[in-house]
Amino acid sequence: MQVDDTSNADAQTVPKTARTAEAFDITTPAERAAAVQKSPQASTFLGETIASLGNPADTGIWLLTPLVGTVQSGRVQYGDSSVVLELRPIRGEPTGASQLSLSAMRLLQAPLTELVRVNVFAS
Predict the structure, then answer these.
(1) Are 116 and 50 in contact (CB under 8 A)?
(2) Closest CA to 105 of 92, 118, 123
(3) What is the pTM of this model?
């Protein structure tokens, strides 16, 4: 029996030996630099939400949030840090139930084991 491989050969995957945040965070230096802008683009404030760490094996820079209904570009601010990322819809209360990717949490310098209050903007 032959199985068709429909996976994306270029997709980044976390190494099976990953055990630390650094090993799970496989974003490139270029991706990290693009996400951390010194002068963010004009954006629309969507609201404030409480976020936890999302699935560390789900690579990329993203926020799962009930504040959006469709996938779109956006920005998250935590304290003095701001990160450009992909906003992905998730069901739940707008003020909570959000999840940040490992890469986003690290770029925001947010504690990985805590719930964080972030401001969310649509691009």
Answers:
(1) yes
(2) 118
(3) 0.74
